[in-house]
Amino acid sequence: MHGQTGIEPRTLQTQTDDCWLAAATKSKIPDRFAQAVVDIVGSENVSTTDAVREQHGHDESYHTTSPPDIVAFAESTEHVSQVAKLCNDHEVPLIPFGSGTGLEGGINALKGGLCLDLSKMKKILSVHPEDFDCTVEAGVTRVTLNNYLRDTGLTFPIDPGADASVCGMCATSASGTNAVRYGTMRENVLNMEVVLPDGRVIHTAGKGRRTKKTSAGYNLTNLFVGSEGTLGIITQATLRLHGIPEATISAVCSFNTIQEAVDSTVQILQMGIPIARIEFLDEVSVDACNRYSKLDMKVAPSLFFEFTGSPDTLDKQAEVVKDIASMNGASEFKWASKPEERNQLWKARHDILYACMALNPGSKPYSTDVCVPISNLPEVITRSKEAIQKAGVIGPIVGHVGDGNFHVFFPTDRSNPEEVKKISDVSVYMAQIAMELDGTCTGEHGIGMGKRGLLQQEIGDEGMEVMKQLKSTFDPKGIMNPGKVFPE
Amino acid sequence: MHGQTGIEPRTLQTQTDDCWLAAATKSKIPDRFAQAVVDIVGSENVSTTDAVREQHGHDESYHTTSPPDIVAFAESTEHVSQVAKLCNDHEVPLIPFGSGTGLEGGINALKGGLCLDLSKMKKILSVHPEDFDCTVEAGVTRVTLNNYLRDTGLTFPIDPGADASVCGMCATSASGTNAVRYGTMRENVLNMEVVLPDGRVIHTAGKGRRTKKTSAGYNLTNLFVGSEGTLGIITQATLRLHGIPEATISAVCSFNTIQEAVDSTVQILQMGIPIARIEFLDEVSVDACNRYSKLDMKVAPSLFFEFTGSPDTLDKQAEVVKDIASMNGASEFKWASKPEERNQLWKARHDILYACMALNPGSKPYSTDVCVPISNLPEVITRSKEAIQKAGVIGPIVGHVGDGNFHVFFPTDRSNPEEVKKISDVSVYMAQIAMELDGTCTGEHGIGMGKRGLLQQEIGDEGMEVMKQLKSTFDPKGIMNPGKVFPE
């Protein structure tokens, strides 16, 4: 058997009473394959129980669960490499799993196969405070990393909301509220260790390299950022860190129209004010926030601001922003300079998903995201709201307005197919408007299984052909996360 | 003939007395091929004269000229597509040419072939001031673009020194003094139109898309940024623009040691001060500046600073920086808040290449660049200086210290092979030290023909294998800029 799989015999076990082995017979995976997986990662790291397979068969999205046949937990790059080679040799689908917090069904095992859970790879391998970088294993989450970094005065600011694994964030090209200041994963990953489907281990910028910039060869790093597990498995990432700002103040203000809020944002950006966050909430979201977080904001299109920097410069930044907002018709400009006020405000923003769900008790989120050039935001938001209204569903809108990116968090009764269909139709329509207005069908959630058809439309036939060629180059047998990104 | 090349017959000319045709016979290119090129771009856009071929056979580096056999000037993407297909069908080497301002021999026609000059493609196709983006054709230079943008209050801040074409800057992954604030080309290109060797035209982010971020499919944009003409021909780029800061002040100060200058830089970055430029000059460069630009700076390791922002906040930023520098042993802290003083200072920095050349009259530049994590800068600079001294050559050091990137501008007598050999040996040694210290052999000049062996060492065998696979995917016949990036 080992000769067949190309794996060196290690601790071949003759387990007869192992629960995983019994369970394996229920699934499509042959015992011999399952045994080979055990030989690599150890029996404690393999499961074929329904509960574990079910848990690994879906993310936080509305997509129907598709469990893998077998789940393996990797503890090292060596594990990943050997499992990949095994799957490749036997043409078994291989789905990398980080934290399961994705929003487009990126981990659903549409063709069964092996789910490789990387959450046990959680070493923080190095932190270089003077160089503003660190290197972590695949399973480290952003909150764990930031807790670890606390004493260094540095932070990894990319914040997609969920406590996602860093390598999952790489795979999805995640971003969030801080992107207007710090960029997305694309701008904050310096290097990655990646296991290719055939088991080869590469370092996208060369082993150990961690420079802020380079012109040496093709940018493999940014080819794997956003590849959604379809080209290889990210096992380590070297990340840019940023200084924790000395001081922070926050503010919130409301407008009469979406246009006023967007115009204010454009003018603030034009002034080059190094604002840390600008978040848009429509009146439905504000209402949800008020109810859920016990606030008393005016129910109107609103902007949340966060200013960071040295205490001396903050007030001046904020005054300029207040002037700009006022000139554009803002009212109810409220400061939150004390930590408790600020925390309350941003906690409300952070809890907005729960607040939106509370608008429809018992519901679960159906979350979609699109991104357009900022000047097109008013049109795409207005038309989206019309579509939401026409469909008769609840659709609060929350946006990273500085990036032209926004979400609708539909509180959905997932057991009601009619409602799901309506919401799905609105989501597709939103993506269509975004694309019509020079935008993209996803700013930060990725394509996964949910937006495959839209990608074709967005990139065009020639672009898709090239992406397929890339896929074939890295994964000629098509084992990596099959059914994702590419339309069937 | 057209049947063979797959090109639609257009204005087939029967020129008998054309000078290009006469000249073509001198070169390796068959008349029939040259005629097919004329049929595509018109006879006014083809040349095989020695002068034009020679001019297209080298950039600004020390590498020996390798002229192409034929030079064609494209006026449209359609021209580029048809020429690429022609070259591909006939397996003729194809070298894209922007402005010829590269520093690693990226355009030298090592295998002869056709040089496709894009400098006639100079339309600024669109500017969207509220969206901070513009789309330009391949041949637009950064100075032309910034002159055009002046009235919008926006700027394209990437400044590699030379007035390079924007698409050449894309191809090299250029950066420069502003990168510490605005990033490199990697962070500032939103989309590109690219012609593949077989003539297919793709838009890396989908046609017309210009969002600040996207998670839709593979990041083709950043695969072509830095591809140095080896994967395809960049014909258009959509770029991020930035607001021109309201106010600017500059300062210069000197230190006792390189370590003090680097420590100051690290602390300034840790404070999160949004500094626009921090440039390091060693004592040799300062001396060169003093002589050439009639300044009276202390001859010691020095930092040039530029602060930008709203007038209210600038002084405070600058005071903090002064305090940090003083605590690290800085002396001679000189402000330049008036435009004329500031211009004098930064003109001196901008003219540094000429100043360095003047240290060795009649010399031409041999310029090299490496990049390391910033904490390793003192070691790599100190060891580089030792090597320069030991070799007995003049080697002024100038660095984008905030990025860990620095250059040596050797004033070289290119006619003296012994001197060139010494300098080349020092350059290779510098790259070796940089790589030993987690760095890269090139931060912004690219690999070109000069650093092919070093790339192999930097990326490792597996990484190079993957880069070669990518090259074969896009350019299976190997016609695109052959002899570059990859070691033979």
TrEMBL record, chains A, B:
Q: Which reaction does it catalyse?
A: (R)-lactate + 2 Fe(III)-[cytochrome c] = 2 Fe(II)-[cytochrome c] + pyruvate + 2 H(+)
Question: Which segments cross the bilayer?
Answer: none
> What name does the UniProt record give this protein?
Probable D-lactate dehydrogenase, mitochondrial
Q: Where in the cell is it found?
A: Mitochondrion
What is the originating organism of this protein? Mizuhopecten yessoensis (Japanese scallop)
Purpose: Involved in D-lactate, but not L-lactate catabolic process.
What EC designation does it have? 1.1.2.4
Note the Pfam families from the entry: FAD-oxidase_C, FAD_binding_4
Q: Tell me the lineage of the source organism.
A: Eukaryota, Metazoa, Spiralia, Lophotrochozoa, Mollusca
**Acetylation listed as a keyword:** yes
Could you say which cofactors this protein requires?
A: FAD
Q: Which residues form the FAD-binding PCMH-type domain?
A: 64-244
Q: Where is the signal peptide?
A: none
Q: Which GO BP annotation is one of this protein's?
A: lactate catabolic process
An example Gene Ontology molecular-function term: D-lactate dehydrogenase (cytochrome) activity
Q: What is its main location?
A: mitochondrion
